[in-house]
Amino acid sequence: MSTIRLTAAQALVRYLSAQLNEDGEPFIAGVWAIFGHGNVAGLGEALYSARDRLQTYRGHNEQTMAHAAIAYAKQSGRRRAMAVTSSIGPGATNMVTAAALAHVNRLPLLLLPGDVFANRGPDPVLQQIEAFGDGTISANDCFRPVSRYFDRITRPEQLLTALPRAFATMTDPAECGPVTLTFCQDVQAEAYDWPESFFGERTWHQRRVRPDQGELARVANAVKAAKNPVIVAGGGVHYSGACTELQAFAERHQIPVVESQAGKSALAWDHPLNLGPVGVTGASSANAVCEEADLVLGVGTRFQDFTTGSWALFKNPVRQLVSLNVAAYDAVKHGALPLMADARVGLQELGAALGDYAASAPDAALKSDWFTAVDPLTEAPADGNALPTDQQVIGAVQRASGPDTVVMCAAGTMPGELHKLWKAPRPGAYHMEYGYSCMGYEIAGAMGIKMAEPDRDVVCMIGDGSYMMANSELATACMMGVKITVVITDNRGFGCINRLQMGTGGAEFNNLLDHAHHENPSNIDFAAHAASMGAASVHVGSIAELEDALARAKAATGPFVVVIDTDPYPSTPDGGHWWDVAVPEVSDRDEVNEARQGYETALRARLN
Ligand SMILES: Cc1ncc(C[n+]2csc(CCOP(=O)(O)OP(=O)(O)O)c2C)c(N)n1
Ligand SMILES: [Mg+2]
Question: Got the DSSP string for 101-134?
Answer without folding.
Answer: HHHHHT--EEEEEEE--TT-TTPSPTT----TT-
